[in-house]
Amino acid sequence: MGKRRIPQVAHEPPATLHFAVVEGEVDLHGLTARQAETRVAGFVGSWAMRAPGAVVRIITGRGVGSEGAPVIQRRVREQLSGSLADAVSEWAVDIGGGAFLVRVQRITP
Q1: In Å, what is the CA distance from 37 to each residue of 5, 70, 104, 109?
Q2: What is the pLDDT of residues 27-46, one digit of tens each?
Q3: Rounded Cα–Cα distance for residues 85 and 87 (Å)
Q4: CA 47 to CA 5: how far, in whole Å?
C-alpha cells in the first residue's frame, strides 16, 4: 500500500471586499435622498482620485426607520452601477445589509 497524500489547504481568506481593510467611510443617516446622492458622489470621486484601489464603506442603514420602502439604499445602489461606475471597480453589500463596501478606481478621462 502506498502512502496517502493529504492535499494542502490554503489558509488565506477569500479575496472579497468583506475581508478588505476599510480605509474610509461616509454615513448617510439623516440625509435626504438628494443630499445622500451628492455626498456619495463627492466621497467616491475624492477617494478614486487620491487612493485608487482603496476600499471604502458607504453606510446607508437598512431603512427600517423609513416610512415606506427604503430610498437611500436603492439610490446608492443605482449610483454605484450607473453614474459612479467609472470610479468603482467592484462593490458589495456589507454584512448586515446596512452599508456598501466599494473598491474605488482611478477615473479615466
Answers
A1: 55, 14, 17, 22
A2: 999 899 999 999 999 999 99
A3: 5
A4: 48
Please give the residue that has the higher pLDDT: either 62 or 29. 29
pTM of the model as a whole: 0.82
Query: At residue 92, does pLDDT exceed 60?
Result: yes
The letter for the amino acid at 65 is G
Fold of domain 20-29+36-104: Ribosomal Protein S8; Chain: A, domain 1 (3.30.1370)
Cell of 12: 488565506
The pLDDT of 68-92, averaged and rounded, is 91
- Supply 1's cell numbers: 500500500
Give residue limits of the domains in the chain. Answer: 20-29+36-104
Beta strands in the chain (DSSP E): 22-27, 55-59, 88-93, 99-104
